[in-house]
Amino acid sequence: MVARGRFITFEGTEGVGKSTQLKQAAMTLEQLGVDVVVTREPGGTPMAEKIRELLLAPREEAVHETTELLLMFAARAQHLHTKIRPALERGQWVLCDRFTDATFAYQGGGRGVSRARIALLEDLVQGDFRPDHVILLDAPVQTGMARAKKRGELDRFEQEDLAFFQRIRDAYLERATAMPGQYHIVNAELPLEQVSASVSALLTALVQHAR
Ligand code: Z5A
Q: Going by fewer Cβ within 10 Å, which terminus of the chain is more open, N or C?
């Protein structure tokens, strides 16, 4: 029987370096002989990527918080059941750019949706499925926003103000404090190479522990 893979998510406010670190992390795991799948949320499958486009496109029409929440979980249901779970069952390790912790941080902390409402959908879509590890890349929101702005055009979320992202950072840090066994906080304010070294050391330890 093949041992189940591990589900590791990368979280943080915008521009903290998740996508950059994810690529490095996949290389680290491959060098350690781990079969890796890299994916992201919202998205990760053709249908979920279509939902991502709907969610991120700036638009005139105000998006109701419940619509946003349901679309996040609709994309997640498709992604989880058709891509993430099958990969884990094949023994692959799945590295995911954001997952449900982002919903608690963005829709919960950012938009003010109650945790109970998010938890209800989490149970409906995921049952008892949760990430094995959450790598929280943490930096002051100004740092991430400045990095993201350099890329040019801003999506619907990136157009929000500093206070919105501050609430999100606070929500992440609160979850990290509540779940110290699952969360690993990495200081993402440091230069790229130092952040990569911390993530790499962490993943190496997780692989050694899994063997
Ligand atoms: N969202 C939500 O609301 N609810 C949910 O449940 C989920 C998502 C799942 C899309 O996510 C949006 O969906 C997101 C939350 C919402 N909106 N926001 N904001 P996304 O992950 O695709 O978008 P993002 O968070 O905006 O990611 P990002 O802007 O692409 O940031 P990143 O991946 O963390 O950063 P990066 O692209 O790796 O790096 C940004 C730049 O900084 C780049 O030029 C790097 O070279 C540079 N960089 C990275 N690290 C460093 C260091 N250490 N030093 C200096 N420069 C660095």
A: N
CB 174 within 8 A of CB 49: no
Q: How many whole angstroms from 144 Cα to the centroid of ligand 1?
A: 8
DSSP readout, 190-204?
S-HHHHHHHHHHHHH
Contact criterion met (CB below 8 Å) for 39 and 166: no
Other C-beta atoms lying within 10 Å of the C-beta of residue 59: 9
Ligand 1 interacting residues, C-beta cut-off 6 A: 12, 14-20, 41-42, 72, 97-98, 102-103, 106-107, 147-148, 150, 157-158, 188, 191-192, 195
Tell me the pLDDT band of 4, cut-offs 50, 70 and 90.
very high
Q: Note if the bond before 42 is cis, omega within 30 degrees.
A: yes
Counting from 1 in the atom list of ligand 1, the atom nearest the Cα of 195 is 53
pLDDT for the residue 156 = 85
